[in-house]
Amino acid sequence: MFRLRAVCPFSWRVFHSRPIGCEPLIIQMNKCTDEEQIFDFIERNKAILSEQQVGCAFNMLWKLQKQKTSLVKNVEYVRDHPQFLTLHNLAMNKYKLMNDDTLVNVLYITQQFVGEDFDPLVEALVTESWRRLERFDIKLLSEFSSCLAEQHLYFSPLMGKIADIVHRNLETTQDLSSLSVLMVNISSLISQHFQEQLVNKTELLFDTMDSSEVDFAKRIVQFLRNVRYRYQPLLERCNNVFLSNVDHLDLDSISKILSLHKFLQFNSFKFIMVAKKKLTEMIPLLNHPASFVKLFVALGPIAGPEEKKQLKSTMLLMAEELTGEQALAVLGALENMESRNSHLIKRVASVLYKHLDNYKPLELLKITQALTFLHFQSKEFFVKLGELLLSYLKISFIPTEMSFLVCAISMLPSPHLDEVGISRIEAVLPQCDLNKLTSFSASVLRWIQYDQLHLDSNTGKQLKLLQKLDHYSHQRLQHINSFDLLWKELKSLKGDVFSESLIEEMIAAFQRFRDEINYINVAEIAYFISKTNYLSTLLLDRLASVAVQQIEKIHPFTIFAIILPFSVLNYDPPQRDEFLETCMQHLKSYLGMFDPLMLVFLGFSLATLEYFPEDLLKAIFNIKFLARLDSQLEVLPSSLSTRVQFRFMELNRSVCLECPEFQIPWFHDRFCQQYNKDFECALDKRKKPLPYGSHNITLGQRPEMPWESNTEIVGSRLPPGAERIALEFLDSKAFCRNIPHIKGKSAMKKRHLEILGYRVIQISQFEWNSMALSTKDARMDYLRERIFGEVKS
Fold this sequence. Notes:
Layout: H1 2-30, H2 35-45, H3 51-66, H4 75-80, H5 82-94, H6 100-114, H7 120-132, H8 138-150, H9 157-169, H10 176-186, H11 192-205, H12 214-226, H13 232-244, H14 251-263, H15 269-282, H16 289-299, H17 305-318, H18 324-336, H19 342-354, H20 361-373, H21 379-395, H22 399-411, H23 419-428, H24 434-453, H25 459-478, H26 483-490, H27 500-512, H28 522-532, H29 537-549, H30 559-569, H31 576-587, H32 596-608, H33 614-620, H34 623-635, H35 638-658, E1 679-683, E2 698-701, E3 711-714, E4 723-730, H36 744-755, E5 758-764, H37 765-768, H38 776-788
Helix pairs in contact: 1-3, 2-5, 3-5, 3-6, 5-7, 6-7, 6-8, 8-10, 9-10, 10-12, 12-13, 12-14, 14-16, 16-17, 16-18, 18-19, 18-20, 20-22, 21-22, 22-24, 24-25, 25-27, 28-30, 29-31, 30-32, 32-35
GO biological process, one term: mitochondrial RNA processing
Pfam family, one: FAST_2
GO molecular function: RNA binding
């Protein structure tokens, strides 16, 4: 008994004294102001440090790093210090004693110091965390998932386990900040249904977040980018967060947001303008290559002429200092800017050439695409690039990587693929999804076209490869047994890369699952169908039906995408008027919130369908809107700016001709006044040609009344009984892909020429190139019949 009494007080003294002993050591560490002091502390106390104090030491080292700018961080110095190894070994011995928070925190910090190199401590911490995974709360689970993401373990069983835990606990989750981290990290593993659940949960919790917290909004947009889901309601809400906090956004944040918006094709004129202003103010403040490159990449594509000139001149001065990674980023920006500054392009290319051996296949593809687009010419550069691509292809076995390499090779000035390369492609075809199969097909088609131009004899082998690609693509489509899987494979593809037979198979698959088209996916599917140029009345009728029945659940900003296939393919669904009026009423109160270019495209699409809502026209044709449109045109790439201007002119012309009662003026004299016609003539009442003079017609403007109903048809009058004839030859692009049904733009042009007084004769290439018109005499007889009404007996 006495012995027990003697031991017990001692034991209790030891137990109670431990926290007291810990506290002074942690306080000492917290007083350290640099790494050397911490390392001295570790050396003096390594024999007595507890797992809690080891965690504190890691915290202090990382805290000091975070306080430094990127230019003075000394991660390598810390990692290579002998006492960091001591701390590392202490953690290795004590990690099982650490509490959950300390365990994950030490894992995160260790990863920051050791980088991507294999580290036994990281491995041990991950394994121990896996063992404790089920008891982690959502915040700790999100932090651990980020550690796995840093190791690129997106497809690992462990990340799958985390996704399962999130799924099971989603209903009770209330922490959107942590959930948004998890959404980004598990996005590669989730089903379509789980994706929708996460989006719905995000919408429910969105207003619980502090609107000044920008990071959670960035993560939500990143998640949508990862799953390739352009979900307008969430994008709009996140964009409002960005706009309300724009004064606090730094260069990195603005760059990230612009990049995400571009990928998702989300247009926010307001954000672009405030970002442009803020980034422009940074130009004189940044003189280090690392920071200036970020600015160049973010601001370049949206800058005005003066800012672009300033950016390029500064970049020219520091081009030789660029790293390989920075040079690649600048090249991408020059491509987005559609630059023709050959001096700067050559400077950047010389840096790329020095680092060419260090680039990965995807980076080599980006280099090839950009230099081709920028019309860069250098035999030496492309020869080395080609050799490098072929050498990678011969050792690569990953389908995605091989598709990048093959695509890049096909874009070279003299593309060549030997039998070894062809056999490499054939070997991976069974593993490829539709994305990779269509990428290979597009590349092979480019080779065939090049070889045919240069009379190369390898075309036969390439045609056989093309047939195999088509076969595997058909197989892939035929084996898809769910709409989610079909849409996952198709939504990232361009609709014009499919062969005729494959597009029929794809449309047939859509038709099988048409009942699964709903308010969530209707806009994306409509946009995809518009790119295929394939007229399926069954699918278009379903799209119109969903829009009418579920309009209240559809975001107004997606209405344009829903209308687009009807406009492009020139198709009126059975409930045409109800469909168009329902769509217009739904977005009526949002017209002032649309980006100018989207309003122009919407107006033009409706005009091709002969639908002219007065509210929309009033929103477009006014001085305030035109000023906004001019401002936006300044920040668009020149090709897109030209396209918007042309669509606006066509809309203006359509309204003037088809709706004169709206008194919309014609104000495009300097841009485009006269219609293009392949051939025109005038015939008198006896069907005899009249001398060509001033019988052609244009739209004109009375200069003294700039904003009244001032459109007039300019041109001389014909003699009584005479007629004007416009002859148009239509190629395959004027028709739907599957049937000889004329598309929207060509139908509208015919309509307008008829309003202007022409008898329009449209001749399709199918007729003109048919066997019946294979001789000159047959063609002349055909033209006489169409123009003069003569039938040869």
